[in-house]
Amino acid sequence: MHGLVFVDTNVLLYALDAGVPEKQRVARGWRDALWRRRRGRISYQVLQEFYVQGYRLSPRAKEKVRAEVHDLLAWDPVVLDQSVLLSAFVVQDDFGLSFWDSLIVAAAQVGGCEYLLTEDLQHGQDLHGLRVVNPFKAGPDDLDARGPGQGGAPRSTRS
Questions:
Q1: In the predicted model, is pLDDT for residue 159 greater than 80?
Q2: From 46, 95, 138, 146, which residue has the greatest number of CB atoms within 10 Å?
Q3: How far apart are CA 17 and CA 39, in angstroms?
Q4: pLDDT of 59 strictly over 90
């Protein structure tokens, strides 16, 4: 895997959600690969959403979710500042995304990421040089096969 991978909230939540075992397995595989390869990146927006939604998913697991948030601080979260906000406006205008998705994209770009790991946007989409990767259509090794700076979507090994 080459380049930093910005992880959207939904992927982190699936890693906790035993109610969807296949998605949980895949999300955990991605999370583990990003930890091993030191390629994961998030924003404070993602951390906040993850905490709120993770707590809703399992209120009795509040301490577990907080521990995950604490661990994810090692991924050097992007701060939502003036630069990210103004970049989000450009992304929203250029691609017609919701403002919240535009903030995610802008944070990934400001954070120097090559990939955005999410199931909420179109797999393979190029957002000003940021490639969207659906974690359920491609795996971490697919990014290795693509190599840095190569065009096109990551190869898909999942059907």
A1: no
A2: 46
A3: 23
A4: no
Contact 129, 149 (CB under 8 A): no
Q: How many CB atoms lie within 10 A of CB 115?
A: 23
The DSSP bridge partners found for residue 5 are 40, 115
- 133/119 Cα distance (integer angstroms): 8
CATH numeric code, 4-144: 3.40.50.1010
Enumerate the domain spans of the chain: 4-144
Q: What is the pTM of this model?
A: 0.89
- d(CA 120, CA 114) in angstroms, rounded, equals 17
Neighbours of 8 (CB within 10 A): 25
For the chain, what's the residue count?
A: 159
3-class secondary-structure state, position 77: coil
